[in-house]
Design brief:
Helix content: 55-70%
Oligomer: single chain
Number of helices: 25
Structural class: mainly alpha
CATH class of the largest domain: Alpha Beta
Strand content: 5-15%
Shape: globular
């Protein structure tokens, strides 16, 4: 889009024209949807107009064979011949000399088809003279490295670029774009250590001007929608709505392009479609307002290892956003989401959270063990909570609450107390159990009674193992038995019932269960709780 990413394009242009008389590499990285491909297409088009591009390979997992790493060298060799015709005879000679060249490793292919032809052409004085005025093509672009099939292939391509940096004494420029996947970060880091000053980086996720550019894009596209529909007011939808959309984009162009593609159509009222995007109106059956985003999120989550573990971690991340900022029994703010805190809640070993989230770096920012994990896409939680969009990768809020509750209970049960504090610990655990169970009732559907059974049963187990049995276990079991009696005697279990009747019984069950919790807590606490306000649950 015109008038966007202007400063970034200028930075790339300055790098490409730099006076360093050696091979250099620029790694441009950012989370999913930050606009890497669009930016590189714009820059490639600019350079191509002035004959500065040797070749470009845009990898994609959405187009057949466009993610095949074995095609990269052949693609670049063909483009090298077109952009620098004097290399043609050397490329053809290499192919004729070795008929099996394309079955060999990529390092052999790039040596014979790219590096050697360029080195031989460079021997001519006429070419060397051209070098001084920089009128020859010098830029090789590889976009979507993370979408090339195979992590080993992705790392191998970075290593091959390193080989070129050793062998070619020419100012070639390799521009590589990808998501910051850990193995790519490691490969680029090794390259930086071997070639100080010749490997540069641009982090699109930290582009301070991204929001401004997204607002420019949104305003232009909304003006386009107004021109299609003359009945729409000239000030529609207003700066506040544009700002809200930019907030939701959270620096990612894919959100802006997705929602604009949905809003701009001659067949539907743009204001109605904007209302659907903002969640004010229900989407018609079969409509997919966030199709591009859903494809992106689905691709990342479906290809991730340990999806079950990722869902459990994401569940804690999302419910933490609604917690208070006060410190709790875990020793950190209840609304924090650091790896250390999540490992305590989920009973994991130090470092497990980072390992579980290895394949989620394009959607999450993971710092030190004490730093909160940050969700990079503001629209990602919407996807996770909508079963029509996320399918089997949906967050079970009730299950997440159960995990959090058990984490609290385990922590209290593991506290080392003196004998006089035992009663206080027992009481605190009891109150906490029932408050957690009661809060879970707000998130669980009536049919999911098993969730309560698991929470109560586990609570009894942990409390008994910690020597907090007796009244506490009896009270918990009493609640569970009375709740089960209510649930399994419900009329809709025996007779077909309308959805309305089912909802009524759901509300009754939740209310009944919460009342039981309060009753059991009061029976045990008596006057003690009013005399100990310092104990926070």
């Amino acid at each position: 889009m015109e008038d966007t990413r202007v400063e970034l394009i200028q930075e790339l242009d300055d790098w490409e024209k730099s006076e360093i008389d050696a091979v250099t590499m620029m790694w441009m990285y950012g989370g999913a949807g930050t606009g890497k491909t669009a930016l590189l297409l714009t820059f490639a088009d600019l350079c191509k107009r002035y004959g500065r591009v040797v070749g470009a390979f845009f990898a994609s997992n959405r187009i057949a064979n466009c993610g095949d790493g074995d095609r990269i060298v052949a693609t670049l060799a063909i483009q090298l011949i077109e952009s620098l015709p004097s290399t043609k005879s050397y490329v053809y000679k290499a192919i004729r000399k070795d008929r099996h060249l394309f079955t060999k490793g990529r390092e052999v292919q790039i040596s014979k088809l790219i590096i050697e032809p360029i080195k031989k052409v460079a021997r001519f004085s006429r070419f060397l003279k051209a070098l001084r005025v920089r009128s020859y093509p010098s830029l090789i672009i590889i976009d979507g490295l993370d979408e090339v099939t195979g992590k080993d292939v992705q790392s191998d391509i970075i290593r091959i670029i390193g080989d070129a940096m050793k062998d070619i004494r020419l100012p070639l420029r390799f521009l590589v774009a990808s998501r910051p996947e850990p193995h790519i970060v490691d490969a680029v880091g090794q390259l930086q250590s071997h070639f100080p000053g010749r490997v540069s980086k641009i982090n699109l996720s930290e582009d301070a001007l991204a929001r401004r550019d997204i607002e420019v894009y949104l305003r232009k596209k909304l003006a386009e929608a107004r021109s299609m529909h003359p009945e729409v007011p000239p000030d529609w939808p207003g700066p506040e709505i544009v700002s809200q959309l930019a907030d939701k984009a959270s620096g990612h162009f894919i959100y802006a392009t997705t929602v604009m593609a949905y809003i701009i159509t001659r067949y539907c009222c743009p204001d109605e479609r904007l209302g659907i995007i903002r969640g004010l109106l229900r989407a018609p059956p079969g409509d997919a307002p966030f199709a591009q985003l859903d494809f992106l999120y689905t691709h990342i989550t479906s290809n991730a290892n340990n999806r079950h573990g990722i869902l459990k971690v994401l569940g804690q991340l999302l419910i933490a956003r609604n917690m208070l900022s006060e410190h709790d029994i875990l020793g950190s703010p209840a609304n924090s989401s650091s790896p250390k805190r999540l490992e305590a809640i989920l009973r994991l070993k130090p470092g497990d959270i980072r390992r579980i989230l290895t394949d989620m770096h394009s959607l999450l920012k993971i710092g030190s063990s004490h730093e909160d994990i940050k969700i990079l896409h503001a629209s990602f939680p919407d996807f996770l909570f909508d079963p029509l969009r996320s399918k089997d990768f949906i967050i079970n809020t009730a299950e997440a609450c159960v995990e959090l509750g058990l984490g609290y209970i385990r922590t209290i049960c593991n506290l080392s107390c003196t004998s006089e504090l035992q009663l206080q610990r027992t009481t605190l655990t009891f109150v906490l159990c029932f408050r957690i169970i009661s809060s879970v009732a707000n998130f669980v559907h009536f049919e999911e009674a098993g969730t309560f059974e698991r929470l109560v049963g586990s609570a009894v187990k942990y409390c008994t193992e910690a020597g907090l049995g007796g009244q506490l276990s009896e009270g918990l079991n009493r609640v569970l038995s009375q709740y089960e009696l209510f649930v399994y005697s419900a009329p809709w279990k025996r007779h077909p019932a309308t959805l309305t009747l089912k909802k009524i019984y759901t509300l009754l069950a939740v209310g009944f269960f919460k009342s039981l919790c309060a009753l059991q807590a009061n029976l045990l606490l008596g006057k003690w709780i009013s005399q100990s306000p310092r104990i926070r649950c």
